[in-house]
Design goal:
Strands 1-22-21-20-19 form a five-stranded mixed β-sheet, with no helix packed on it. It is mainly β. The chain has one domain: TolB, C-terminal domain (Neuraminidase, 6 Propeller), CATH 2.120.10.30. The protein is globular, with a radius of gyration of 17 Å.
């Protein structure tokens, strides 16, 4: 298996960087720092980064077709326009589970926003939000809802509940957003680090971030084979997304939270935003159909 190295592009020092999304029309990258309660934006043309506090833990975001962002905050869905700085709450979710919070999320090819929660004793769930802001529970019994991806012909949905150390695949209907026939397609060895966020390329291969695994692994979901590894100088690699003019740059997020003083000394770039120039292309980040 070939191993390559990612390079730092922005030293964000995020406590818990997550959920990168490429905004194609502006040529900028958005992501979140869950613990600091911030949305972040990076401009690869200038190398500059911006931080937008949202006043709550923020598990995920996605660009909206009409402009602005849809957010998964600690306990609910909201709208946010960074330039305005105002949060517009839409709906509260899991009000009866105060220990839970939203985690990873992204939009499907038809523009529905999928976001999962995490909680002890498998109290997390996966939700789907449609254009009318109706929230539907799709899966329950989840511990840490994480990576999501849809394949090239929009007939398969890939999903990670991190502590299971596997990627599951479902049959997916793009016209309705329904999923069925869950089965495991990739089993991740514990030594490789827990699977976290992921992205998919145009060849249908999955790029999976590993919490505690120092990088990204490219997998063939049809065979479960590891194809290559992108090494990152941060042990807790959290997610990745394709961006750039040709969608051939893999942007990678990472975290500092939970690291000891020695680990932080040994990993000074932890929490940074990294990139790897790939030999393949990804898909544009799907936007919320509002």
């Amino acid at each position: 298996m070939n191993t390559v190295e990612a390079e730092l592009v922005y030293d964000a020092k995020a406590l818990l960087g997550e959920g990168p999304a490429w905004h194609d029309s502006s040529g900028k990258l958005y992501w979140v720092d869950i613990e600091k309660g911030c949305a972040l934006r990076y401009d690869p043309n200038t190398g500059d980064g911006e931080t937008f506090p949202v006043g709550d833990k923020i598990g995920a975001l996605a660009p909206c077709r009409s402009g602005g962002l849809i957010l998964g905050l600690r306990k609910g869905i909201a709208r946010f326009t960074p330039e305005e700085g105002e949060i517009h709450p839409i709906v509260e979710v899991e009000a009866d589970l105060p220990a839970n919070r939203f985690n990873d999320g992204k939009c499907d090819p038809s523009g529905r926003f999928w976001i999962g929660s995490m909680g002890q004793n498998r109290t997390g769930a996966l939700y789907r939000v449609n254009s009318s802001m109706k929230v539907e529970k799709i899966l329950s019994g989840i511990t840490i809802s994480n990576g999501l991806a849809w394949n090239t012909d929009k007939k398969k949905f890939y999903y990670i509940d991190s502590p299971t150390n596997r990627v599951d695949v479902f049959d997916y209907c793009d016209s309705t957003g329904e999923i069925a026939n869950r089965r495991t397609c990739i089993t991740v060895a514990e030594a490789d680090g827990m699977p976290d966020g992921m992205s998919i390329d145009r060849e249908g291969m999955l790029w999976i971030a590993h919490w505690g695994g120092w990088g990204i692994t490219r997998y063939n979901p049809d065979t479960g084979e590891k194809l290559m590894r992108v090494k990152v100088p941060a042990s807790n690699t959290t997610s990745c997304v394709f961006g750039g003019e040709n969608l051939d740059i893999l942007y990678i997020t990472s975290a500092r939270v939970g690291l000891s003083e020695k680990e932080l000394h040994d990993q000074p770039l932890a929490g940074g935003l990294f990139k790897y120039d790939t030999q393949t292309q990804g898909w544009p980040t799907d936007e919320f159909a509002d």
